[in-house]
Each structure stands twice: as structure tokens, then as C-alpha cells.
Amino acid sequence: MMNKTYEKGIYIHIPFCVHKCIYCDFLSTPADADIKHAYCKALINEIRMTADKFPEQLITSVFLGGGTPSVMPYGCIGDILDTIKQCFRLSDDAQITIECNPGTIDKKKLKEYKAAGVNRISFGLQSADDTELKMLGRIHTFADFVESYGMAREAGFNNINVDVMSAIPGQNMTSLEYTLRKVMEMSPQHISAYSLILEEGTYLADNINDYPEVPDEDMDRQMYHMTRRILAENGYDRYEISNYCRKGYECTHNLLYWNRGEYWGFGCSAAGLIDKKRYCNIRDVGAYIRAHGNPEIVRDNIEVMSDADEMEEFMFLGLRKIEGINIYDFRQRFGKNIDEIYEKEIKNNIEKKLLERNGDFLRLTEKGLDICNTVMSDFILTV
Ligand code: SF4
Minimal CA–CA distance to 126: which of 74, 73, 68? Predict the structure, then answer.
């Protein structure tokens, strides 16, 4: 195994939202200001205690996700980012993203984020149709989004992502096109376009019969292709199955995941991958606060990755990128040629026109992208 040092990222999980959306299976809950302050303190302690054991690590991306990080009281996000800067080596061009939901930010918070070094904002819009938003349990209207987006632009943020959702119950091609065109009018640098997944245990999944019909698989694919076409016509490159951007505005944090880089995860339910060990923090916010974020207590499910685990992750994460995986990168990481490990799987999928070689890269074809989960499952070694 080669010993190359890969760049590292930091993911911070903020498990609070104003209100729980009906389809949400993320760790998120409403909470009062005292709990949020206590959580912030515990989080800062987890970062400090971790960095004490792993000093001098170079961090190239920070992503504050949730939940809704923008519901944190004034000062918290600044304190968290200051701690990261004190404890780790943050590269000068690190991309620092915060997820914000429309209606939860104001000028003062945006000023704090800017001063703390945040240089990318990700807005969870999902739909420009207020009826769809209301049905999903979102707290905002499209007008709230336009206002929040305008404030972010005025505050000097020039790298903005907008999340758009397809396969919403009752959604049709026309309403999705309406959302996409309204988003185009705002001209964000980046758009993430995911299909709604019915997750077991969510309110929506438990009460699906009370909601309008969910677009079926065929319509979901048509929605995907329409999204791709409209975004391409408007100058957005698809660089990952569900992510599009203007040239040079890729999300470096997500690229780090897809390139199977290493990252720390801090906060409740945050996952990390460091030195061949994958971990996931405990999900109980109260227990996390009581443990003051002590990594020895809050780290859970620590799994040491085998070479086979790493290879299959490299494959199915890397194949999400439209450029595919770099076969030389595979050899450099694992000390073996990709064809030695996956000869049969590669040959079969190329014959079925689901995979193709492109110079140093192996990538999914358009047909392969349509059934990517099936193709990726061929690369699992450890079943
Ligand atoms: S805003 Fe996002 S994280 Fe919060 S409840 Fe809704 S879907 Fe879940």
C-alpha cells in the first residue's frame, strides 16, 4: 500500500432545525438557545481534544451541515471556525461551506460567517412551488429564499449552491421545470439536484397514502434527464451524478468524499474517516453534551477498513464523478492494477456499454449512469 498523504476535510454536524420536514431522516430536532450553546461548547471541546492528538494536519475544506447550521445563535459559527483555525492548519484556499435554510439568516449572521472565513453558502431551496414546500414541511416560501439569497449576495458571497429536489409527491415535469427555471434566474454557481428518497421511519413514509402520488421510476429518470438538459443549456456542467456547477465552482468537500479523501467528522452523528478507520459519533444530543464532546466517549462504530473495503469504496464513490476514476490513482493507492482486481467486472460492464475507458479514466456511460447502483454493486468485494 502506498503511503501518499491525502488532503483532509472537516465536517461539522449541527443537529438543529426550526421544524422537522416530513421526509427527513437526518439527525435534526428543534431546540432552545441554551441547548444550542451547550452543544456548541461540546463541539469545540471535541475539536480541541481531537487536534491535541493529531496536530499539524492540513485541512483543505470545511463543511458545516445539518440540520440547519444557520439556526445557531449569534457567535457560535464564528467560535467553531476560530477553533478549527487555532487547532488545525487550514489551507489559505480552503473552501468553507455553511448550509443555510431560507428564512433562518439575517445580515448580522452573514457578517459573522464572512468574518469567520465562510466562502460558500448552500441554500436548501428544494422547490420554487410554495404548495410543494408546504407539503414537505419546509418552513420557507420561495419569496423567503429570494430574500435570503439576495442578502447573501449583498454580504459578498459569490459562491452559492442551491439544492433542488425531484420526485416530490404530486410533482410533475412542468412544476420541476418551473423550479429549475426560477433557480436559473438567480444564477447560482452550483446546483445539487437529488430525487426525494422515501426513507423508512419518516413521517412521509409512514403516511404515504395521505399524500399525492410520488413520481414513479420512469418519471424520475425523465426528471433527471430534463434537469441535466436545462442546466447544460444554462452553462452548468454535470460533474457528479447529481451535482452541477459553473466552471471552477465544484464543491471541494464533496469531491474529497468522492475521491475517497480523509476527513474528520465533529458533532452528533457526524462520520469521519482517518487513518483507515471509519467512525460515526453518537446520535443522542443530550449524551453528546453531557460527554462534553470527548472523542473517547462520543466516537461510536469505529471500523478498521480492510484493503477490500477501501477498494470498493474507491470504486463506487469514484464512479459517481462524471469523469470517473483514475486508474493510475488506483494503482498508486493500492499498489495493484485495477484490472488485476476487477478484470471480469470491468470487461462485463464495458461489453454491456455501461462503462467505458477514457484515457486514464474509467467512467460510467450515459446508460450506466441511469442504472448506476446496479453497476456499482458489481464492484463490491466483501460480500
Ligand atoms: S431542513 Fe433539512 S435537516 Fe432540517 S428537518 Fe428539513 S430536511 Fe431535515
Answer: 68
Which is the closest atom of ligand 1 to the Cα of 67?
A: 3
Cβ contacts of 377 within 8 Å, gap of 6 or more: none
Q: Does 368 sit in the ligand 1 pocket, CB within 6 Å?
A: no
pLDDT digits (tens, 9 = 90+) for 260-291: 999 999 999 999 999 999 999 999 999 999 99
Question: From the CB of 28, is ligand 1 less than 6 Å away?
Answer: yes
Specify the pTM: 0.95
Kindly state if the Cβ of 65 falls inside 6 Å of ligand 1. no
Q: List pLDDT tens digits, range 207-220.
A: 999 999 999 999 99
- Domains belonging to the chain, first-starting first, are 8-258 (3.20.20.70), 307-377 (1.10.10)
27 Cβ inside 6 Å of ligand 1: no
Spatial distance between the Cα atoms of 324 and 308, rounded to a whole number of angstroms = 19
